[in-house]
């Protein structure tokens, strides 16, 4: 890991963050987050108007920032599109790059200078960072934008029907005591999983050699897992699908930290393993 | 046509797997329901299994205390079908086979028309395979062979939001015909878009259309017509058969015509990378 690797890593990051697909994914994520934000701010203002007209309890704690930002609400089109397409958007910026560079012959030039290990490590790290960033930025912007219009009232269990946070959900105590810390924790989790989806796409590209397959594999696998969870309906009450457990509040089941950790590790080990073994063994020259 | 089926034929196995998973899901739900109700048997027909797979989602009415749950079975089925036809036409051009076929075919228009026919035939084949798989599963599970949807089963296990005690016989037409037509229309739209933009971006657009269709119940989002749960046979104010047919045929005609016009001036050396 010398100067050469640093240069390769910097170059990979530059390519990962300055390509058309990165901007398209960021624009799509930003659009979905904006749709959610506009809908929830409008809903908040409408509720405030109705409650003011009715008089009595203004129910200030029922509608706040923590159940209005995209990670806390579960009923807008923006939220639906963002979390359903999260693995796709994460893989889009740079998940396809490995197979594209192998195909074009560019990979040979870099591997000659930085070695196969160095090249693969830089490629995986750049894919991870670009995937994580493209998901993290719309979430952060949505949170800040919604905070400009909706007060950050601390959630309370007295209005639990307005907070989709079920008993036993990951860090639910933190949610009702230090909600900002809870949001920061979830932003980190989403960043890591989005990065892992990008890494999985790189590994899929390594196996298939097609850009489309590389980018779509994590998305279709998550959809399949989301469907398979219906077999657990009525038998197991923990969330196993990343489409739902990456959302900061419970959609159907509660998120379990051990399941999240296990799925994250499986993603990391399988993707990293495929990328490493196939990448090292591939006859580039 | 033959090349397309050779290259994309393996993906039909994925369709069979998805259909089998869906059939098994309904079968287990049915068994669980029978168990909870003292073992009174609940017989289904193969149309019930198709309705379960292709039904979609009941209309969503957003409110503060209601979360939106994606109809993932329906979405996965349709997205997988679109994925199966996504990159063959672009790949055909990329590896110069398409260029040669275009010269042999005599015109660019013929090449595009051949691809459109391949796309529609592939979709039709996928649906025929779906029907055959469902029939085989029902035969193995001892279900009745019938073309009618069983109201008792639907009201017990399907969340359709319907107020009808029995369903009109046209429901079978909504289930068998419209999803297939809309898949064909979306397949052609995807193929056209994959030449206009890149295939992955075209798929993103198609996915957004389908997901938005599950959320918004409007005729402008074509995915709605592929959801028999929202049809006039299930809801009193649902969409009519002719509306779905008109929307599907309109998209098919527009995509074929736009593709022919677009291919007249398309730069064949600027192949979309798949």
Q: How much of the residues of chain B is beta strand, in percent?
A: under 5%
Give the SSE order of chain A as H and E letters: HHHHHHHHHEHEH
Helical proportion of chain A, percent range: 55-70%
Main sheet record of chain A? 2 strands, parallel
In the predicted model, the low-confidence regions of chain A spanning at least 5 consecutive residues are none
Radius of gyration of chain A: 21 Å
Q: Please, how many helices of chain B?
A: 12
Gross geometry of chain A:
elongated
Flag low-confidence runs of chain B.
none
How is the quaternary structure best described? heterodimer
Provide structural commentary:
The complex is a heterodimer of chains A (about 280) and B (about 270). With about 280 residues, chain A is mostly helical. Helices cover about 70% and strands about 0% of the residues of chain A. Chain A is built from 11 helices and 2 strands; from the N terminus they run αααααααααβαβα. Chain A has a two-stranded parallel ribbon with strand order 1-2. In chain A, α10 links the parallel β1 and β2 (about 255). In chain A, α5 (about 95-105) packs parallel to α8. Chain A is elongated. The two termini of chain A are about 25 Å apart. The mean pLDDT of chain A is about 90. In chain B, α2 crosses α3 (about 45-55) and α4 runs antiparallel to α11. Chain B contains 12 helices and no strands. The relative contact order of chain B is 0.16. Chain B is elongated, with a radius of gyration of 20 Å. Chain B has about 270 residues and is mostly helical. The longest helix of chain B is centred in the middle third of the chain and has 34 residues, at about 110-140. Chain B has helices at about 1-10, 10-35, 45-55, 70-85, 90-95, 95-105, 110-140, 150-155, 170-175, 180-195, 200-215, 240-265. The interface between A and B is large, with 39 and 36 residues.
């Amino acid at each position: 890991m010398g100067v050469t690797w640093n240069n390769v890593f910097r170059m990979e990051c530059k390519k990962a963050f300055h390509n058309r697909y990165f901007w398209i994914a960021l624009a799509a994520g930003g659009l979905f987050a904006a749709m959610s934000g506009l809908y929830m701010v409008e809903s908040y203002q409408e509720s405030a108007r109705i409650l003011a007209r009715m008089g009595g309890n203004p129910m200030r704690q029922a509608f706040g920032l923590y159940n209005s930002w995209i990670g806390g609400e579960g009923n807008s089109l923006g939220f639906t599109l963002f979390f359903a397409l999260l693995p796709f958007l994460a893989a889009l910026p740079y998940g396809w790059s490995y197979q594209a560079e192998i195909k074009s012959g560019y990979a040979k030039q870099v591997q000659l200078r930085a070695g196969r290990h160095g090249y693969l490590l830089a490629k995986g790290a750049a894919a991870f960072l670009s995937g994580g960033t493209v998901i993290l930025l719309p979430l952060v912007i949505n949170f800040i934008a919604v905070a400009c219009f909706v007060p950050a009232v601390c959630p309370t269990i007295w209005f639990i029907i307005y907070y989709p946070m079920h008993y036993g959900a990951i860090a639910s105590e933190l949610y009702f005591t230090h909600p900002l810390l809870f949001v920061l924790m979830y932003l980190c989790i989403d960043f890591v999983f989005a990065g892992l989806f990008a890494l999985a796409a790189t590994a899929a590209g390594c196996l298939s050699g097609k850009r489309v397959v590389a980018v779509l594999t994590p998305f279709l696998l998550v959809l399949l897992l989301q469907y398979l969870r219906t077999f657990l309906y009525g038998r197991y009450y923990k969330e196993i699908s990343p489409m739902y457990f990456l959302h900061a509040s419970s959609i159907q089941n509660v998120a379990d930290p051990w399941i999240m950790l296990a799925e994250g590790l499986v993603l990391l080990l399988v993707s990293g393993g495929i990328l490493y073994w196939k990448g090292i063994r591939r006859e580039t020259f | 046509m033959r090349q397309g089926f050779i290259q994309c034929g393996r993906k039909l196995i994925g369709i069979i797997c998805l259909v089998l998973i869906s059939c098994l899901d309904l079968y287990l739900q049915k068994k669980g329901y029978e168990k909870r109700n003292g073992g009174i048997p609940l017989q289904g027909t193969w149309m019930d299994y198709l309705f379960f797979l292709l039904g979609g989602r009941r209309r969503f009415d957003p409110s503060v205390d209601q979360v939106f749950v994606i109809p993932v079975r329906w979405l996965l089925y349709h997205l997988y079908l679109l994925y199966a036809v996504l990159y063959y036409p672009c790949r055909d051009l990329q590896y110069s086979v398409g260029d040669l076929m275009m010269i042999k075919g005599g015109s660019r228009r013929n090449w595009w028309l051949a691809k459109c026919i391949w796309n529609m035939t592939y979709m039709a084949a996928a649906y025929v395979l779906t029907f055959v798989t469902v029939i085989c599963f029902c035969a193995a599970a001892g279900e009745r062979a019938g073309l009618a949807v069983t109201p008792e089963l639907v009201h017990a296990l399907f969340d359709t939001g319907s107020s009808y005690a029995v369903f009109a016989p046209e429901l079978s037409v909504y289930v068998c015909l419209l999803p297939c037509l809309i898949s064909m229309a979306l397949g052609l739209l995807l193929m056209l878009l994959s030449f206009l933009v890149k295939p992955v971006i075209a798929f993103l657009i198609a996915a957004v259309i389908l997901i938005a269709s599950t959320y918004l119940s409007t005729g402008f989002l074509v995915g709605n017509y592929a959801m028999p749960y929202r049809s006039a046979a299930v809801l009193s104010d649902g969409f009519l058969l002719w509306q779905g047919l008109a929307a599907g045929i309109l998209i098919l005609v527009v995509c074929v015509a736009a593709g022919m016009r677009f291919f007249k001036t398309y730069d064949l050396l600027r192949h979309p990378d798949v």
